[in-house]
Design goal:
Elements (H helix, E strand, L loop, with lengths): L6 E16 L5 E16 L5 E13 L4 H30 L2
Antiparallel strand pairs: 1-2, 2-3
Amino acid sequence: MVAENRIKIIIDLTKNRSIKEKNIQNKVIKYNLSLSADVKIIELNSTREVSRNFTANQTYNVEDSYSGTVNNSKDANNSLINTISDEILDQLRIYYN
């Protein structure tokens, strides 16, 4: 017998970048990147809803070149997305296993 769990997932993702550290000349040398996901899981077979918030933070360095800083930002962003998606999948495994 196979149980079929039909669900709808709504994710509201918020990204925030803030200055973490400045040097003696008041130049930014590190940023903090934060991702927050408000997740709502709706079971289509019933009226049950589960809401949960997932948050992840990472710091990245400012490079001498702009492209280096952009690459660091993209790497941090991708890492945070992977972290949050893993946490969401873990929760789904807990609820529906």
